[in-house]
Amino acid sequence: MEAVLVTGGAGFIGSHLCEKLLLDEYRVICLDNFITGSRQNIQQLISNRKFQLVEHDLIEPLPKEILDRQDIRSIFHLASPASPNKKSPKSYINHPVETLLVNSQGTYHLLEYARKIHGRFLYASSSEIYGDPKVSPQNESYFGNVNPNGIRSVYDEAKRFGEALTMAYVRTHDVDGRIVRIFNTYGPRMQKDDGRVVSNFITQALSQKPITVYGEGKQTRSFCFIDDMLNGLLKALFTQNTKGEVINLGNPDERTILELANKIKSLTQSSSEIIFEGLSQDDPKMRKPDIQKAKNLLQWNSEVSLDEGLKKTIAYFKSV
Ligand code: UDP
């Protein structure tokens, strides 16, 4: 039985991925330093004999617990703070240097390891590498419109560096690496305090507090349900013809933030009022993935509608 290393395995996407890999009969090593991940996310996995938690900061060289294992064949590199909301303690804005280093130094440690074990490697990049895009939808050949030193740059430029490093190892050392660009993803186990729009709006709506739309709410995002994202990630790593490829994963169903606020208000039957607050610097005005490449290469599509996904997510938030 082969083992898979998931960095950021205690995060929102990572913990779901660990769970799914265990169901698919893999051994799983979850690496996390818990700066933004949570023990709660993986508590149901701890007793599984095929699951190992390694508490480690990827900025440091990989620990012995990992280097000593002989069964690791694949690596999902998801570790990074990911929320842009400076009001959240988990935001990358509040962990700027850690964010830059986990995506640079951390990625370097993992690529060296992938090279050594001749393993498959997946780098979790982000739609953020497109910055505030000037084209819509964004396909993989678009270079993006990124402020190299604004407040979001610690994430955007870190992810761009991680992409460059991954491709350098593919080209120079023949590492079996690929890059996925993850667009906005939501679902059960999002953290209440991470400041993302879906978790904020649901939490606010359920507690009858004001729903905080930043700016006028005309900016757009396209929301992908976690189950779809997991299928895409697994296909991107395990499909044969993906070495050296860059693949968008997301749901192209584009909505304005105000529309999302109204939808969540109505699905929760909330009496919350919708209020408008200041927009942060460089907040992208639009975002919508072109997923034709994933469809062709992976035979993958996002299938869960926004209504269906939000209902499941609301049910989760009611239960915690
Ligand atoms: N947003 C909002 N209210 C909130 C949180 C976020 O209006 O309480 C907006 C934010 O300004 C952005 C969008 O929702 O335009 C998505 O924000 P999120 O932090 O979820 O992800 P991003 O796509 O910006 O990385």
Provide a descriptive summary of the structure in words.
This protein is of the alpha/beta class. The protein has one domain (3-185, 224-252, 289-303): Rossmann fold (3-Layer(aba) Sandwich). It is 37% helix and 18% strand. It has ten helices and 13 strands. The strands form four sheets. The chain has a seven-stranded parallel sheet with strand order 3-2-1-4-5-6-11, sandwiched between helices. A two-stranded parallel sheet has the order 7-10. It has a two-stranded parallel sheet with strand order 8-13. α1 crosses α7 (226-238), α4 (96-117) runs parallel beside α5 and α6 (197-206) packs parallel to α8 (257-267). The protein starts with a strand and ends with a helix. The mean pLDDT is 97.
What are its keywords?
single chain; 320 residues; alpha/beta; Rossmann fold; seven-stranded parallel beta sheet; two-stranded parallel sheet; 10 helices; globular; binds uridine-5'-diphosphate
Secondary structural class:
alpha/beta
Helix proportion:
25-40%
Q: Report the biggest beta sheet as strand number plus sense, adding barrel if it closes.
A: 7 strands, parallel
Gross CATH architecture: 3-Layer(aba) Sandwich
Q: What's the CATH topology label?
A: Rossmann fold
Q: Segments where pLDDT lies below 50 for 5+ residues?
A: none
Secondary-structure element pattern, one letter each: EHEHEHEHEHEEHEEEHEEHEHH
